[in-house]
């Protein structure tokens, strides 16, 4: 613990708020760019949302022969079929097949054709069949979950602090969520239920980081009643900087392990979390904090004057 403490910055005096206009410009570009990519390009919906068949196959002996598998499955005329190796042994393959016309019976027939084509050289560890109705319901539920989480976060911060803090936290969290959506639309990474879980986790992490800094602001408002808001915000960020670095580094290393060793199933989740850690830290410092200046947050002395109008008349 002492070794870690040696590398953490203490007593820093960085002028973070100085770059607020540049940060706001970057934030605007990220949000508008993300919305544009989402509208123009859309998402690469996984089986969870688009419907279809998902199969996890494992070679009984030796490594899976992807070339032979592709050639064999291409002759079945099942539409779009994608194969992707995952895991570290080279034996595991993820097979995705687009939704077939004709209802559940057509999906089962397609699954039977795949198994017959691959033969006895593979075992099937996981098979999922998702219909269009279920996919549409999951899309609506996923959107509803994200919207309700953002609303709950705003209400929580609003009641715990003041309205300025609630709006700042909401804008900051919205920024993190929408840019994560934009990342998936831009890169074409598969968007599934695991991705929704990652986005909700990002929202929770982001607001936690923001609340820690806002709590220090509130504490300093009582402690330094005459300090200008600009200086007080910088002081609050610097005082929580060591905690922020330690938290981000710890989670970052953990998520890296998920990315490299978690397999294909957790790949999208890990990428979303890594992006969320970076963008969440940025937004807490450069979006949530500077916005308090423009929402006319008052220092401790001004608050006392507002509470006691006769204070300015006393000799």
UniProtKB/TrEMBL annotation:
SUPFAM superfamilies reported in the protein's UniProt record: Multidrug efflux transporter AcrB transmembrane domain
Pfam families: Sec_GG (PF07549), SecD_SecF_C (PF02355)
Gene Ontology biological process terms in this record: intracellular protein transmembrane transport; protein targeting; protein transport by the Sec complex
Main localization category: membrane
Gene that encodes the chain: secF
Single GO MF annotation: protein-transporting ATPase activity
Transmembrane regions: 21-40, 142-159, 191-208, 241-263, 269-295
Provenance organism: Magnetospirillum molischianum DSM 120
Signal sequence segment: none
Topology with respect to the bilayer: Multi-pass membrane protein
Keyword Oxidoreductase part of the UniProt annotation: no
Gene3D superfamilies per UniProt: Multidrug efflux transporter AcrB transmembrane domain (1.20.1640.10)
GO cellular component, one term: plasma membrane
Function description: Part of the Sec protein translocase complex. Interacts with the SecYEG preprotein conducting channel. SecDF uses the proton motive force (PMF) to complete protein translocation after the ATP-dependent function of SecA.
Subunit structure as annotated in this protein's UniProt entry: Forms a complex with SecD. Part of the essential Sec protein translocation apparatus which comprises SecA, SecYEG and auxiliary proteins SecDF-YajC and YidC.
Cellular location(s): Cell membrane
Protein name, as recorded: Protein-export membrane protein SecF
Boundaries of every Protein export membrane protein SecD/SecF C-terminal domain copy: 118-296
Similarity comment text for this entry: In the C-terminal section; belongs to the SecD/SecF family. SecF subfamily. Belongs to the SecD/SecF family. SecF subfamily.
Keywords assigned: Cell membrane, Membrane, Protein transport, Translocation, Transmembrane, Transmembrane helix, Transport
């Amino acid at each position: 613990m002492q070794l870690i403490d040696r590398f953490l910055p203490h007593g820093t005096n960085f002028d973070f708020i100085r770059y607020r206009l540049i940060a706001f410009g970057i934030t605007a570009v990220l949000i508008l760019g993300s919305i544009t990519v989402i509208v123009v390009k859309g998402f690469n919906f996984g089986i969870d949302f688009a419907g279809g068949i998902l199969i996890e196959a494992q070679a009984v002996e030796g490594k899976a022969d992807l070339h032979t598998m592709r050639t064999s499955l291409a002759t079945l005329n099942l539409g779009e079929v994608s194969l992707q190796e995952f895991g570290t042994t080279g034996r595991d393959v993820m097979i995705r097949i687009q939704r077939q016309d004709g209802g559940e019976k057509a999906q089962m027939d397609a699954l039977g054709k795949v198994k017959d084509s691959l033969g006895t050289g593979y075992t099937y560890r996981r098979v999922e069949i998702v219909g269009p109705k279920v996919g549409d319901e999951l899309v609506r539920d996923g959107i509803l979950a994200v919207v309700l989480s953002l609303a709950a976060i705003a209400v929580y911060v609003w009641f715990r602090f003041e309205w300025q803090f609630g709006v700042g936290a909401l804008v900051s969290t919205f920024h993190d969520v929408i840019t994560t959506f934009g990342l998936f639309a831009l890169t074409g990474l598969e968007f599934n239920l695991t991705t929704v879980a990652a986005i909700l986790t990002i929202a929770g992490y982001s607001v936690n980081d923001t609340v820690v800094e806002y709590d220090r602001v509130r504490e300093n408002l009582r402690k330094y009643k005459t300090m200008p808001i600009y200086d007080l915000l910088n002081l609050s960020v610097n005082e929580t900087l060591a905690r922020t670095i330690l938290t981000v580094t710890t989670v970052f290393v953990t998520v890296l392990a998920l990315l490299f060793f978690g397999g294909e199933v957790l790949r999208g989740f890990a990428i979303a979390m890594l992006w969320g850690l970076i963008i969440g830290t940025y937004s807490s410092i450069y979006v949530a904090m500077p916005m308090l200046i423009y929402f006319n947050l008052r220092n401790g002395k001004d608050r006392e004057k507002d509470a006691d109008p006769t204070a300015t008349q006393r000799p």
